[in-house]
Amino acid sequence: MKKIIGLFYKDLFFTNRLFTGLGISAVVFVFSFFFPWLGIIPVLIFWALIALFLIDVLMLYRTAKGVFAKRHAPERLSNSDDNDLGVYIENWYPFNIGIAVIDEIPFQFQKRDIWFKSNLKPNERKLISYVLRPTKRGEYEFGNVMVYAKSPLGLIRRRFTFEQAETLPVYPSFLQMRKYELMAISNRLTDIGIKKIRRIGHSLEFEQVKNYVAGDDYRTINWKATARRGDLMVNSYTDEKSQHVYCVIDKSRAMKMPFDGLSLLDYAINASLVLSSVALIKEDKAGLITAAEKIGAVVPADRKPSQLNKILEVLYKERTRYLETNMELVYSTVRSVIKQRSLVVFFTNYESMNALNRQLPYLKRIAKFHLLLVVFFENTELKTLSEKQATDLEGIYIKTIAEKFAHDKKLIVKELAKYGIQSILSTPQNLTVNTINKYLELKAKQKI
Q1: Which residues cross the membrane (predicted)?
Q2: How far apart are CA 296 and CA 312, in angstroms?
């Protein structure tokens, strides 16, 4: 008996419909003092509610397992992307039920609206889908799935708790990476902002001798092969392959700045992952170096099928440090790890010319041996302030300072170009597209 009472106390919840009925009974009872003709009606209403309550309890509790629920989630979540999850529900009752579902999602999302209502017929199955967008890498702990069921009477709800506790890792944006891969395979990269780059001259890598077709460059005609075959034959060239592409990611405090829920480090990680994927599709070799006051991870360039997963596993664990980058150590690591001329994409952030001048001597040294591409971020908040109309003295002061910092960003681009260093000044949301466009441009111009 105690067990049954404990079960009711834990899993039985009263609905508004029951309280409404009791309220009506109480009101009628009060009015019966002033209108004796109401007589026994309040008592009948009360006992009718009690009888319906007991019937409702019997309907919901006569079977131990009236509802089944299970969370449908991927093995891992993609950072900064919309991830599809769901709760699978089955109704094992012989009558229609109304359900309310609560999925205990990780606290990192700070959401309290994962509450779904639906109706199920007998033996009906349903998948309730929802979307989560994580903004930090790491492990996310999900809790139980709770289902509140009510019968057609609707006076009470019975709670079913399904232990679905699990921990899901949040990796860098592999969904974005797959999207770019699919677009590249189907030649639809222009749909997502990737520009078509006009190739200048011929690649130095010979591929084959083939029959001439309309549109081939007549300067590539192979006269010896033409004489042997009796038909026009041309030399075919292909993009140079196996070129090394290294992403060097700055993890210092300069990359801690947030934008749209993500840090600049997360944007750099997502962009480097997509760039590595595109480089491997182009049959180049992709590598990775992370650094702050000390060197973090080093992944030598390779194009094995497992290379992308290796880079993904390394980026998953990276965190922002709170000290400045040791550029001397970065330079020595680049010289010791990268043995041949490569494209070195350095993801960092500069807010002033002073910040650049501290690192410029080491950047010039790296540029002597490799093609260096410095990628840093445009401060969108400062841009908004500089474009805002000033209405008072304080507004003029703020607008002036914002314009000064925005101008410094453009000076940094010119200063880097003075020493032959390529650069990208990009907003965080456009970082991936701009980086890939620059990589394809450099490759088309045969600068690597």
Answers
A1: 12-34, 40-61
A2: 14
Task: Please check whether residue 132 is in contact with residue 109, taking contact to mean a CB–CB distance below 8 angstroms.
Answer: yes
- This prediction has a pTM of 0.77
Q: What is the mean pLDDT of residues 215-232?
A: 79
pLDDT band at 168 (very low <50, low <70, confident <90, very high): very high
8 Å CB contact between 76 and 169: yes
In order of 384, 389, 402, the CA distances from 393 in angstroms are 18, 12, 14
Q: Using the 8-state DSSP alphabet, how is residue 221 labeled?
A: B
Residue 194 has pLDDT above 50, yes or no: yes
- Per-residue pLDDT tens over the stretch 69-108: 999 999 999 998 999 999 999 999 999 999 999 999 998 8
In the chain, count H helices and then E strands.
12, 21
Distance, CA of 22 to CA of 18 (rounded, Å): 6
3-state secondary structure of 362: helix
pLDDT for the residue 121: 92
End-to-end Cα distance, the chain: 80
Question: How many angstroms separate the CA atoms of 442 and 312, rounded?
Answer: 25
Angle at alpha carbon of residue 326, lines to 320 and 332, rounded to 5°: 120
Give the mean model confidence (pLDDT) for residues 259-273: 91
Q: Do β-strands 138-142 and 97-103 pair in parallel, antiparallel, or remain unpaired?
A: unpaired
Q: For all residues of the chain together, what is the average pLDDT?
A: 84
Alpha helices in 14-99 (DSSP H): 16-31, 41-61
* Consecutive H or E run containing 154: none
- Strand 244-250 vs strand 343-347: parallel, antiparallel, or unpaired? parallel
Cα–Cα dist 356/261, whole Å: 26
Tokens of 325: 């980058």
C-alpha separations of 73 from 77, 117, 274 in Å: 9, 20, 24
Partner residues linked to 371 by β-bridges: 343
For residue 7, the model assigns a pLDDT of 44
